[in-house]
Amino acid sequence: MVTSKGDTEKQAFLRDKLIKGAKDEANIYITNIFSVLKPKSKLVDIGCGTAHITQELARQYKNASFVGLDISKAMINLAKNNTQELTNIKLVQADGLELPFQSSEFDIVINRLADYSPKEVYRILKKGGYFFECGLGPDADREIAEFFPDRYEEENFFLPKDPANWKKEVVEEIGTFGFCDIKIEDHKSKDYYKNKEEIMDLIEMVPLVKNFDRVKDNIKLQEFVDRYNEKEGIGITWHFYILVARKL
Ligand SMILES: C[S@@+](CC[C@H](N)C(=O)[O-])C[C@H]1O[C@@H](n2cnc3c(N)ncnc32)[C@H](O)[C@@H]1O
Q: What is the pLDDT of residue 20?
């Protein structure tokens, strides 16, 4: 049975708002997936959130079939709204740790910043199928972690045991589930936020800071803005990796 786990209605609203405001947000990831997508592929996005990735893929591959899965009812409702015009996307509310699919059902499984089970991904992939994972690198949102050292929500993040070898750690872990041809690349850049409101949206969306309160933390947030303000806006480090693996 699916309970009300996963992102709340407020998080879903904020994620949708931030994604729609940041046009090129997942471009590199999407380009990687396009490189193996075929006209009749069957793909599932685990923890699809607002379905912005699946939506982009489904628009260009009208004969391929796409499933967006998320445990959150609020996210699935939002995803349905975002993809109304696409008949090749099915949205399912289910737990990414126990996938409601047959073994060897999909050509491609994707996951971006969401809970999943590598064992389940391996099970539902066809032989020759691809798994794409987009996860956070250790420097993601570094400025928030620096500014709120005691209130940073560390459990929301992947923290490498050995920061010098974190990519090796990720590859080795996925390898234990039987995947082959594993490749990983990381990308680091800055995202620029226009104002304090947008930083508050980001903090609440993840959430990044324990007991964050827009009113009580207002003055502290102004200090944050003053410290990290640059010519282009308030700069926050965006560090992610893209992992590709195959079931052979
Ligand atoms: C950080 S958001 C990422 C959403 C989307 N993949 C994206 O790139 O924007 C994480 C998503 O994972 C979902 N989620 C959390 N736990 C989950 C689980 N056990 N199974 C499926 N989805 C889950 C949340 O509801 C949320 O939509």
A: 79
Tell me the per-residue pLDDT of 162-204, one tens digit each, with 9 for 90 and over.
778 999 999 999 999 999 999 999 999 999 999 999 999 999 9
Closest-CA residue, ligand 1 atom 15, reads 6
Select from 45, 56, 72, 124 the residue to mutate for testing ligand 1; criterion: most ligand atoms less than 8 Å from CB.
72
- What is the Å distance from ligand 1's center to 82 Cα? 16
Task: Report the 10 Å Cβ neighbour count for 73.
Answer: 18
Q: What domains lie within the chain, and their CATH numbers?
A: 9-137+157-189+237-246 (3.40.50.150)
pTM above 0.90, yes or no: yes
Q: Where are the alpha helices (DSSP H) in the chain?
A: 9-21, 27-34, 52-60, 73-82, 118-124, 142-147, 166-175, 196-205, 218-228
Q: Which of 24, 29, 48 to mutate to test the pocket of ligand 1 (most atoms within 8 A of CB)?
A: 48
